[in-house]
Design goal:
Distance between the termini: 34 Å
Order of helices and strands: EEHHHHHEHEEHEHEHHHHEEHHEHEHHH
Number of helices: 18
Number of domains: 3
Largest sheet: 5 strands, parallel
Length: 461
Protein backbone atom coordinates (compact mmCIF):
# COMPACT_ATOMS: atom_id res chain seq x y z
CA UNK A 1 0.00 0.00 0.00
CA UNK A 2 1.12 3.55 -0.66
CA UNK A 3 0.80 5.84 2.36
CA UNK A 4 2.52 9.20 2.85
CA UNK A 5 3.83 8.86 -0.74
CA UNK A 6 5.96 5.83 0.23
CA UNK A 7 5.30 2.13 -0.28
CA UNK A 8 4.44 0.34 2.96
CA UNK A 9 3.98 -3.46 2.91
CA UNK A 10 0.48 -4.61 3.78
CA UNK A 11 2.02 -7.13 6.18
CA UNK A 12 3.50 -4.27 8.24
CA UNK A 13 0.14 -2.52 8.50
CA UNK A 14 -1.57 -5.82 9.37
CA UNK A 15 0.98 -6.49 12.11
CA UNK A 16 0.68 -2.96 13.51
CA UNK A 17 -3.13 -3.06 13.65
CA UNK A 18 -3.17 -6.54 15.16
CA UNK A 19 -0.64 -5.64 17.87
CA UNK A 20 -2.49 -2.46 18.79
CA UNK A 21 -5.61 -4.61 19.22
CA UNK A 22 -3.75 -7.19 21.33
CA UNK A 23 -2.27 -4.54 23.63
CA UNK A 24 -5.70 -2.97 24.13
CA UNK A 25 -7.10 -6.39 24.94
CA UNK A 26 -4.34 -7.10 27.50
CA UNK A 27 -4.97 -3.95 29.54
CA UNK A 28 -8.75 -4.18 29.26
CA UNK A 29 -8.53 -7.80 30.47
CA UNK A 30 -6.41 -6.63 33.41
CA UNK A 31 -9.08 -4.01 34.22
CA UNK A 32 -11.84 -6.62 34.27
CA UNK A 33 -9.79 -8.89 36.56
CA UNK A 34 -8.65 -6.26 39.09
CA UNK A 35 -11.52 -3.77 39.37
CA UNK A 36 -14.30 -4.73 41.77
CA UNK A 37 -16.91 -2.38 40.33
CA UNK A 38 -18.19 -2.51 36.77
CA UNK A 39 -15.09 -1.99 34.57
CA UNK A 40 -17.24 -0.13 32.05
CA UNK A 41 -17.42 2.74 34.54
CA UNK A 42 -13.61 2.88 34.70
CA UNK A 43 -13.14 2.60 30.93
CA UNK A 44 -15.75 5.12 29.79
CA UNK A 45 -16.49 7.38 32.76
CA UNK A 46 -13.13 7.48 34.55
CA UNK A 47 -11.03 8.02 31.36
CA UNK A 48 -9.72 4.45 31.55
CA UNK A 49 -9.85 4.03 27.77
CA UNK A 50 -7.78 7.22 27.34
CA UNK A 51 -5.19 5.98 29.84
CA UNK A 52 -4.92 2.68 27.99
CA UNK A 53 -4.48 4.60 24.70
CA UNK A 54 -1.50 6.41 26.21
CA UNK A 55 0.08 3.09 27.24
CA UNK A 56 -0.59 1.58 23.82
CA UNK A 57 1.01 4.57 22.07
CA UNK A 58 4.17 4.47 24.19
CA UNK A 59 4.49 0.70 23.88
CA UNK A 60 4.11 0.81 20.09
CA UNK A 61 6.69 3.63 20.03
CA UNK A 62 9.09 1.40 22.00
CA UNK A 63 8.62 -1.43 19.48
CA UNK A 64 9.09 0.97 16.57
CA UNK A 65 12.30 2.42 17.98
CA UNK A 66 13.79 -1.09 17.98
CA UNK A 67 12.96 -1.66 14.29
CA UNK A 68 10.39 -4.32 15.11
CA UNK A 69 8.15 -3.00 12.33
CA UNK A 70 11.02 -3.10 9.84
CA UNK A 71 12.36 -6.59 10.51
CA UNK A 72 9.27 -8.75 10.92
CA UNK A 73 10.88 -12.16 11.11
CA UNK A 74 11.87 -13.37 14.58
CA UNK A 75 15.38 -14.83 14.29
CA UNK A 76 15.99 -15.07 18.04
CA UNK A 77 13.21 -15.62 20.60
CA UNK A 78 15.48 -14.43 23.40
CA UNK A 79 16.35 -11.22 21.58
CA UNK A 80 12.71 -10.46 20.81
CA UNK A 81 11.75 -11.05 24.46
CA UNK A 82 14.48 -8.62 25.52
CA UNK A 83 13.29 -6.03 22.99
CA UNK A 84 9.70 -6.41 24.19
CA UNK A 85 10.85 -5.90 27.80
CA UNK A 86 12.66 -2.72 26.72
CA UNK A 87 9.50 -1.47 25.00
CA UNK A 88 7.50 -2.12 28.16
CA UNK A 89 10.19 -0.26 30.07
CA UNK A 90 9.57 2.75 27.80
CA UNK A 91 5.85 2.53 28.63
CA UNK A 92 6.55 2.34 32.39
CA UNK A 93 8.96 5.28 32.12
CA UNK A 94 6.34 7.35 30.29
CA UNK A 95 3.81 6.52 33.02
CA UNK A 96 6.31 7.69 35.63
CA UNK A 97 6.81 11.04 33.90
CA UNK A 98 3.06 11.54 33.44
CA UNK A 99 2.45 10.96 37.13
CA UNK A 100 4.23 14.25 37.89
CA UNK A 101 2.08 16.52 35.74
CA UNK A 102 -0.80 14.61 34.15
CA UNK A 103 -1.87 12.01 36.69
CA UNK A 104 -5.31 11.73 35.08
CA UNK A 105 -3.60 9.98 32.15
CA UNK A 106 -1.80 7.44 34.33
CA UNK A 107 -3.07 3.86 34.43
CA UNK A 108 -3.53 2.38 37.93
CA UNK A 109 -0.40 0.57 39.08
CA UNK A 110 -1.70 -3.00 39.27
CA UNK A 111 -3.61 -2.75 35.99
CA UNK A 112 -0.40 -1.52 34.37
CA UNK A 113 1.62 -4.40 35.82
CA UNK A 114 -0.86 -7.18 35.07
CA UNK A 115 -1.62 -5.82 31.59
CA UNK A 116 2.11 -5.65 30.84
CA UNK A 117 2.51 -9.27 31.97
CA UNK A 118 -0.28 -10.26 29.58
CA UNK A 119 1.52 -8.32 26.80
CA UNK A 120 4.70 -10.30 27.40
CA UNK A 121 2.79 -13.53 26.86
CA UNK A 122 0.35 -12.62 24.09
CA UNK A 123 2.63 -10.36 22.02
CA UNK A 124 5.47 -12.90 22.09
CA UNK A 125 3.13 -15.71 21.03
CA UNK A 126 1.56 -13.56 18.29
CA UNK A 127 4.91 -12.38 16.89
CA UNK A 128 6.23 -15.94 16.72
CA UNK A 129 3.09 -17.10 14.93
CA UNK A 130 3.07 -14.10 12.59
CA UNK A 131 6.76 -14.58 11.76
CA UNK A 132 6.32 -18.23 10.90
CA UNK A 133 2.85 -18.33 9.33
CA UNK A 134 1.34 -14.85 9.24
CA UNK A 135 3.50 -13.49 6.41
CA UNK A 136 2.55 -16.34 4.09
CA UNK A 137 -1.11 -16.21 5.16
CA UNK A 138 -1.40 -12.59 4.01
CA UNK A 139 -0.44 -13.73 0.51
CA UNK A 140 2.26 -12.80 -1.98
CA UNK A 141 2.37 -11.92 -5.64
CA UNK A 142 4.37 -14.18 -7.96
CA UNK A 143 6.86 -12.22 -10.07
CA UNK A 144 8.33 -13.35 -13.38
CA UNK A 145 11.40 -11.49 -14.65
CA UNK A 146 11.92 -10.94 -18.36
CA UNK A 147 15.69 -10.50 -18.68
CA UNK A 148 18.60 -10.74 -16.27
CA UNK A 149 20.09 -7.27 -15.93
CA UNK A 150 21.96 -6.16 -12.82
CA UNK A 151 18.87 -4.29 -11.68
CA UNK A 152 16.80 -7.48 -11.97
CA UNK A 153 19.36 -9.34 -9.83
CA UNK A 154 19.16 -6.60 -7.16
CA UNK A 155 15.36 -6.67 -7.15
CA UNK A 156 15.29 -10.47 -6.85
CA UNK A 157 17.73 -10.38 -3.92
CA UNK A 158 15.66 -7.66 -2.24
CA UNK A 159 12.42 -9.67 -2.55
CA UNK A 160 14.13 -12.70 -1.05
CA UNK A 161 15.64 -10.65 1.79
CA UNK A 162 12.35 -8.93 2.72
CA UNK A 163 9.41 -11.36 2.39
CA UNK A 164 7.14 -8.77 4.02
CA UNK A 165 7.18 -6.85 0.73
CA UNK A 166 4.68 -9.44 -0.49
CA UNK A 167 6.44 -10.61 -3.65
CA UNK A 168 7.95 -13.98 -4.58
CA UNK A 169 10.28 -14.30 -7.57
CA UNK A 170 9.37 -17.52 -9.43
CA UNK A 171 11.97 -17.29 -12.20
CA UNK A 172 13.35 -15.38 -15.17
CA UNK A 173 13.49 -15.67 -18.96
CA UNK A 174 16.61 -14.83 -20.96
CA UNK A 175 18.17 -15.98 -24.23
CA UNK A 176 21.80 -15.81 -23.11
CA UNK A 177 21.46 -17.82 -19.89
CA UNK A 178 22.42 -21.46 -19.52
CA UNK A 179 20.24 -22.31 -16.58
CA UNK A 180 22.19 -20.49 -13.85
CA UNK A 181 20.49 -18.96 -10.82
CA UNK A 182 20.23 -15.21 -10.22
CA UNK A 183 19.94 -14.42 -6.50
CA UNK A 184 18.34 -17.84 -6.06
CA UNK A 185 15.87 -17.30 -8.92
CA UNK A 186 15.83 -20.12 -11.53
CA UNK A 187 16.01 -19.79 -15.33
CA UNK A 188 12.71 -20.85 -16.89
CA UNK A 189 13.54 -20.59 -20.57
CA UNK A 190 14.14 -18.18 -23.44
CA UNK A 191 12.22 -14.97 -24.04
CA UNK A 192 10.18 -16.51 -26.83
CA UNK A 193 8.69 -18.97 -24.30
CA UNK A 194 6.93 -16.13 -22.44
CA UNK A 195 3.35 -17.22 -23.16
CA UNK A 196 4.02 -20.88 -22.30
CA UNK A 197 5.75 -19.94 -19.02
CA UNK A 198 2.90 -17.61 -18.06
CA UNK A 199 0.34 -20.37 -18.71
CA UNK A 200 2.37 -22.87 -16.67
CA UNK A 201 3.42 -20.76 -13.67
CA UNK A 202 0.60 -18.16 -13.67
CA UNK A 203 2.57 -15.15 -12.37
CA UNK A 204 0.78 -12.09 -11.00
CA UNK A 205 3.34 -9.63 -12.36
CA UNK A 206 6.00 -9.47 -15.07
CA UNK A 207 9.07 -7.26 -14.60
CA UNK A 208 10.89 -6.38 -17.83
CA UNK A 209 14.66 -6.07 -17.35
CA UNK A 210 16.22 -6.93 -20.69
CA UNK A 211 19.68 -5.40 -21.12
CA UNK A 212 19.06 -5.12 -24.88
CA UNK A 213 15.48 -4.67 -26.04
CA UNK A 214 15.91 -4.01 -29.74
CA UNK A 215 14.41 -6.93 -31.73
CA UNK A 216 14.22 -8.95 -28.49
CA UNK A 217 11.29 -7.49 -26.59
CA UNK A 218 8.11 -9.55 -27.26
CA UNK A 219 5.91 -6.48 -27.60
CA UNK A 220 2.79 -8.24 -28.90
CA UNK A 221 2.92 -10.94 -26.22
CA UNK A 222 3.40 -8.36 -23.45
CA UNK A 223 0.57 -6.23 -24.80
CA UNK A 224 -1.81 -9.20 -24.91
CA UNK A 225 -0.85 -10.25 -21.39
CA UNK A 226 -1.26 -6.68 -20.12
CA UNK A 227 -4.73 -6.41 -21.66
CA UNK A 228 -5.67 -9.75 -20.11
CA UNK A 229 -5.14 -8.24 -16.65
CA UNK A 230 -1.55 -9.26 -15.90
CA UNK A 231 0.55 -6.44 -14.41
CA UNK A 232 3.64 -5.58 -16.50
CA UNK A 233 6.29 -3.27 -15.03
CA UNK A 234 9.67 -1.98 -16.14
CA UNK A 235 12.58 -2.91 -13.91
CA UNK A 236 12.95 0.75 -12.91
CA UNK A 237 9.39 0.80 -11.53
CA UNK A 238 9.89 -2.49 -9.69
CA UNK A 239 13.17 -1.18 -8.26
CA UNK A 240 11.40 1.94 -6.97
CA UNK A 241 8.69 -0.18 -5.32
CA UNK A 242 11.18 -2.56 -3.69
CA UNK A 243 13.84 -0.07 -2.55
CA UNK A 244 11.89 3.17 -2.11
CA UNK A 245 14.25 5.12 -4.35
CA UNK A 246 14.77 5.93 -8.03
CA UNK A 247 17.14 3.68 -9.98
CA UNK A 248 19.64 6.14 -11.44
CA UNK A 249 21.06 3.52 -13.82
CA UNK A 250 17.67 3.12 -15.50
CA UNK A 251 17.00 6.85 -15.86
CA UNK A 252 16.93 8.30 -19.36
CA UNK A 253 16.58 11.97 -20.34
CA UNK A 254 13.22 11.16 -21.91
CA UNK A 255 11.93 9.85 -18.57
CA UNK A 256 12.75 13.17 -16.96
CA UNK A 257 11.48 15.39 -19.75
CA UNK A 258 8.12 13.72 -20.33
CA UNK A 259 7.34 12.50 -16.81
CA UNK A 260 4.25 14.14 -15.32
CA UNK A 261 5.30 13.20 -11.77
CA UNK A 262 8.98 14.07 -11.59
CA UNK A 263 9.03 17.61 -10.28
CA UNK A 264 6.83 19.26 -7.63
CA UNK A 265 4.38 21.95 -8.64
CA UNK A 266 4.84 25.61 -7.74
CA UNK A 267 1.94 25.34 -5.31
CA UNK A 268 3.57 22.46 -3.41
CA UNK A 269 6.85 24.35 -3.17
CA UNK A 270 5.08 27.44 -1.85
CA UNK A 271 3.14 25.37 0.69
CA UNK A 272 6.38 23.69 1.80
CA UNK A 273 8.01 27.08 2.34
CA UNK A 274 5.11 28.18 4.56
CA UNK A 275 5.01 25.18 6.87
CA UNK A 276 8.82 24.88 6.92
CA UNK A 277 9.05 28.47 8.19
CA UNK A 278 6.42 27.82 10.84
CA UNK A 279 8.15 24.64 12.04
CA UNK A 280 11.52 26.41 12.04
CA UNK A 281 10.13 29.31 14.08
CA UNK A 282 8.65 26.97 16.69
CA UNK A 283 11.80 24.83 16.66
CA UNK A 284 14.08 27.81 17.18
CA UNK A 285 12.02 29.09 20.11
CA UNK A 286 11.65 25.67 21.79
CA UNK A 287 15.33 24.70 21.37
CA UNK A 288 16.76 28.12 22.29
CA UNK A 289 17.72 26.98 25.85
CA UNK A 290 19.41 23.90 24.36
CA UNK A 291 21.28 26.07 21.85
CA UNK A 292 22.54 28.31 24.66
CA UNK A 293 23.87 25.28 26.57
CA UNK A 294 25.49 23.89 23.42
CA UNK A 295 27.08 27.27 22.67
CA UNK A 296 28.67 27.38 26.13
CA UNK A 297 29.88 23.76 25.80
CA UNK A 298 31.48 24.46 22.40
CA UNK A 299 33.17 27.61 23.66
CA UNK A 300 34.61 25.93 26.75
CA UNK A 301 35.68 22.69 25.06
CA UNK A 302 38.02 24.02 22.35
CA UNK A 303 39.36 27.31 20.98
CA UNK A 304 37.58 28.84 18.03
CA UNK A 305 34.20 30.31 17.10
CA UNK A 306 30.96 28.82 18.41
CA UNK A 307 29.22 28.79 15.04
CA UNK A 308 30.68 27.11 11.98
CA UNK A 309 29.91 28.88 8.71
CA UNK A 310 30.32 27.02 5.44
CA UNK A 311 29.34 27.68 1.81
CA UNK A 312 26.76 25.23 0.47
CA UNK A 313 24.88 24.93 -2.82
CA UNK A 314 21.17 25.63 -2.52
CA UNK A 315 18.05 25.92 -4.67
CA UNK A 316 18.82 26.37 -8.41
CA UNK A 317 22.57 26.06 -7.67
CA UNK A 318 22.62 29.35 -5.73
CA UNK A 319 25.27 29.24 -2.95
CA UNK A 320 24.43 30.24 0.61
CA UNK A 321 26.08 30.19 4.04
CA UNK A 322 25.05 27.26 6.22
CA UNK A 323 25.23 27.59 10.02
CA UNK A 324 26.16 24.81 12.42
CA UNK A 325 27.60 24.56 15.89
CA UNK A 326 31.31 23.90 15.47
CA UNK A 327 32.06 20.23 16.12
CA UNK A 328 35.61 20.08 14.72
CA UNK A 329 38.88 21.76 15.53
CA UNK A 330 39.21 25.27 14.15
CA UNK A 331 42.02 24.20 11.78
CA UNK A 332 40.30 20.96 10.68
CA UNK A 333 40.91 21.50 6.94
CA UNK A 334 43.97 23.73 7.02
CA UNK A 335 46.19 21.01 5.50
CA UNK A 336 43.72 18.72 3.73
CA UNK A 337 41.28 21.12 2.08
CA UNK A 338 37.66 20.07 1.57
CA UNK A 339 37.21 16.39 2.47
CA UNK A 340 34.30 14.25 3.61
CA UNK A 341 34.03 13.38 7.28
CA UNK A 342 34.87 9.75 8.08
CA UNK A 343 33.94 7.41 10.91
CA UNK A 344 35.77 8.29 14.14
CA UNK A 345 37.13 11.42 12.43
CA UNK A 346 40.12 12.66 14.50
CA UNK A 347 39.25 16.27 13.67
CA UNK A 348 36.03 16.07 15.72
CA UNK A 349 36.27 17.42 19.28
CA UNK A 350 34.95 15.35 22.24
CA UNK A 351 31.97 17.69 22.66
CA UNK A 352 31.49 17.78 18.89
CA UNK A 353 31.23 13.99 18.78
CA UNK A 354 28.21 14.12 21.08
CA UNK A 355 26.72 17.05 19.17
CA UNK A 356 26.94 15.09 15.93
CA UNK A 357 25.56 11.93 17.49
CA UNK A 358 22.52 13.78 18.84
CA UNK A 359 22.29 16.07 15.77
CA UNK A 360 22.46 19.13 18.03
CA UNK A 361 25.06 20.72 15.77
CA UNK A 362 22.32 21.16 13.15
CA UNK A 363 20.05 23.34 15.32
CA UNK A 364 21.27 26.72 13.94
CA UNK A 365 19.95 25.67 10.54
CA UNK A 366 16.49 26.64 11.76
CA UNK A 367 17.68 30.17 10.98
CA UNK A 368 18.69 29.12 7.46
CA UNK A 369 15.09 27.96 7.01
CA UNK A 370 13.71 31.24 8.36
CA UNK A 371 15.93 33.11 5.86
CA UNK A 372 14.37 31.10 3.03
CA UNK A 373 17.61 29.32 2.10
CA UNK A 374 16.52 25.87 3.26
CA UNK A 375 13.44 23.80 4.07
CA UNK A 376 12.87 21.48 7.01
CA UNK A 377 12.90 18.52 4.59
CA UNK A 378 14.86 18.21 1.36
CA UNK A 379 18.14 16.95 -0.09
CA UNK A 380 21.06 17.80 2.18
CA UNK A 381 23.06 20.79 0.84
CA UNK A 382 26.55 19.93 -0.37
CA UNK A 383 29.70 22.01 -0.58
CA UNK A 384 30.49 23.71 -3.93
CA UNK A 385 33.81 21.81 -4.22
CA UNK A 386 32.01 18.47 -3.99
CA UNK A 387 29.09 19.55 -6.19
CA UNK A 388 31.44 20.38 -9.09
CA UNK A 389 33.17 17.01 -8.78
CA UNK A 390 30.01 14.96 -8.30
CA UNK A 391 28.16 16.67 -11.17
CA UNK A 392 30.94 15.55 -13.54
CA UNK A 393 30.93 11.96 -12.27
CA UNK A 394 27.24 11.27 -11.53
CA UNK A 395 24.50 11.79 -14.14
CA UNK A 396 21.51 13.87 -12.96
CA UNK A 397 23.29 15.02 -9.81
CA UNK A 398 22.57 18.68 -10.53
CA UNK A 399 18.82 17.89 -10.68
CA UNK A 400 18.77 17.51 -6.88
CA UNK A 401 19.09 21.31 -6.66
CA UNK A 402 15.67 21.81 -8.25
CA UNK A 403 14.20 22.10 -4.72
CA UNK A 404 15.44 23.76 -1.54
CA UNK A 405 17.89 21.73 0.53
CA UNK A 406 16.68 20.48 3.89
CA UNK A 407 17.80 20.00 7.47
CA UNK A 408 16.73 16.37 7.11
CA UNK A 409 15.76 14.29 4.13
CA UNK A 410 14.71 10.89 2.83
CA UNK A 411 18.32 9.91 2.19
CA UNK A 412 19.30 10.80 5.76
CA UNK A 413 16.71 8.46 7.33
CA UNK A 414 17.22 5.67 4.79
CA UNK A 415 20.97 5.47 4.23
CA UNK A 416 24.22 5.91 6.08
CA UNK A 417 26.53 8.92 5.91
CA UNK A 418 28.04 9.44 2.44
CA UNK A 419 31.77 8.87 2.46
CA UNK A 420 32.17 7.32 -1.01
CA UNK A 421 30.95 7.81 -4.57
CA UNK A 422 28.71 4.72 -4.31
CA UNK A 423 27.01 6.06 -1.18
CA UNK A 424 26.50 9.42 -2.88
CA UNK A 425 24.79 7.72 -5.86
CA UNK A 426 22.48 5.83 -3.51
CA UNK A 427 21.60 9.03 -1.68
CA UNK A 428 20.95 10.74 -5.01
CA UNK A 429 18.42 8.01 -5.80
CA UNK A 430 16.59 8.78 -2.56
CA UNK A 431 16.75 12.52 -3.32
CA UNK A 432 15.26 12.00 -6.79
CA UNK A 433 12.47 9.89 -5.28
CA UNK A 434 11.79 12.70 -2.81
CA UNK A 435 11.72 15.35 -5.55
CA UNK A 436 9.34 13.20 -7.59
CA UNK A 437 6.96 12.66 -4.66
CA UNK A 438 7.38 15.92 -2.69
CA UNK A 439 4.29 16.53 -0.57
CA UNK A 440 3.34 17.52 3.00
CA UNK A 441 2.53 13.85 3.73
CA UNK A 442 6.02 12.71 2.68
CA UNK A 443 7.62 15.54 4.68
CA UNK A 444 5.63 14.47 7.76
CA UNK A 445 6.79 10.88 7.26
CA UNK A 446 10.43 11.96 7.03
CA UNK A 447 10.20 14.24 10.09
CA UNK A 448 8.63 11.39 12.10
CA UNK A 449 11.44 8.99 11.17
CA UNK A 450 14.07 11.67 11.75
CA UNK A 451 13.10 11.72 15.43
CA UNK A 452 13.92 8.01 15.59
CA UNK A 453 17.28 8.52 13.86
CA UNK A 454 18.14 11.32 16.31
CA UNK A 455 17.13 9.33 19.38
CA UNK A 456 19.18 6.32 18.31
CA UNK A 457 22.15 8.36 17.05
CA UNK A 458 22.21 6.64 13.67
CA UNK A 459 24.07 7.85 10.60
CA UNK A 460 26.19 10.40 12.49
CA UNK A 461 29.81 10.75 11.44
Amino acid sequence: MRLFRVFIPTSVLALLISEVTIIFFCYILASYILIDVDPVVFLFYDSGATRICVVVATLIAGLYLQDLYTNLRIRSKTLFFQQLCLALGVAFLAQGFLSYGASSWVLPRWIMMLGSAFCLVFLTAWRLMFSSAGLSAIGTQKVLFLGRSEVVAEIAARLKELPQLGFTAIGYLDDASQGELIAGVPWLGEVKALRLVVEQYKPDRIVVGLTERRNRLPVIDLLDLRLSGLQVDESATAFENAFGRICARELRPGHLIFSSELGPSTGKLMLQSIYSSLIALVGAVVTLPIMLIVAVAVKLSSPGPILFRQARVGHNNVPFTLYKFRSMREDAESTTGAVWAVENDPRVTPVGRWLRRLRLDELPQFFNVLRGEMSIVGPRPERPEFVSMLTEKIPYYRQRHSVKPGITGLAQISHKYSDSLEDTITKLEYDLYYIKNLSPALDAYIIFHTIKVMLLGRGAQ
